[in-house]
Write a structure and sequence with these properties.
The protein is of the alpha/beta class and about 280 residues long. It is about 35% helix and about 25% strand. The two termini are about 30 Å apart.
């Protein structure tokens, strides 16, 4: 079985190091595809042995996300001609088998060929005691494991084609596993966001406002911690994923007859928390 992993990165050096470490051990560095946004010499060092493509970086356009995921959709479509499965996601995301006794390759062997699989999303949340927990995230329950070509929608939170969640896969969104790197990310984007703010508020497009709002959220998250209320009922990851998967299936919707995605607002009050196990502790230490 041949498996590849694809991501795109701007700076985010610590995240890329962990992404390469995780997927490189599983699939081999020669099967990792890294799109470097901008000519960053640190990317070149971290991507040694991988397939590294450098894309020039200009000022952040308001339709950047659309451009990015259109490009990543096309790259994945090409790779699927040579691989059985292609994993695609942001550099601060990894796909983890929810059962600690299984590997990703073992879980993949059970999957229907040429299918598109959604992983159940969890965000790493810092706790007050300097430890972490995993909080269920409908927003990050994304189509991430591709057995056939598909076109991602914005942020890869949905796709133009049918896909389903499998509780054997968890998408771990880990920006807060390293607060210093998270703050550096916010600082690296400040110039782009400040440029957007130069447009008078009554003249900004929806996309410009969305990017500015996203920047504010990132700054708040950098200083946040998991509420104590979340810590009352923490279960193993496989149990948390099995609880969440039926809820995700009920809220899947088709927009305009073509885009399949979760409706995260319908699940915003659902609180499911999972334990951090040794696999993540070792990776992020």
């Amino acid at each position: 079985m041949k498996v590849a992993a694809v991501t795109m990165v701007y700076k985010d050096h610590w995240y890329l190091e962990k992404w390469v470490q995780y997927y490189g051990q599983l699939f081999g560095a020669e099967n990792l595809y890294i799109i470097g946004h901008g000519d960053d010499p640190v990317h070149c060092e971290l991507a040694k042995g991988c397939n590294h493509i450098r894309v020039p970086r200009n000022q952040l356009p308001e339709d950047f996300d659309e451009q990015r995921w259109r490009m990543l959709s096309d790259i994945c479509a090409v790779l699927i001609k040579s691989y059985d499965w292609v994993f695609c996601g942001d550099v601060d995301e990894i796909i983890l088998p929810t059962r600690t006794e299984e590997t990703l390759l073992e879980v993949l062997k059970r999957q229907t060929p040429e299918s598109v699989i959604g992983a159940v999303g969890f965000e790493i949340m810092p706790r007050a005691d300097s430890q972490w927990l995993l909080q269920f995230s409908p927003r990050y329950s994304k189509p991430s494991v591709l057995g056939r070509p598909i076109k991602f929608s914005l942020g890869a939170h949905g796709a133009f084609g049918d896909w389903k969640h499998d509780p054997d896969f968890a998408l771990i969104h880990f920006p807060l596993a390293n607060r210093d790197s998270f703050r550096q990310r916010a600082q690296a984007l400040e110039s782009d966001l400040e440029e957007l703010k130069k447009t008078p508020s009554d003249e900004r497009t929806y996309r410009q406002n969305a990017l500015i709002s996203w920047g504010h959220v990132q700054r708040r998250k950098a200083e946040g911690a998991a509420p104590e209320a979340l810590e009352s009922d923490i279960v193993p990851l496989k149990d948390a994923a099995q609880q969440a998967a039926p809820l995700l299936a009920k809220t899947m919707k088709v927009m305009n007859g073509i885009e399949y995605r979760v409706a995260p607002r319908k699940l915003r009050h659902v609180q499911i928390c999972a334990q951090i196990d040794d696999r993540l502790t070792e990776l992020f230490s």
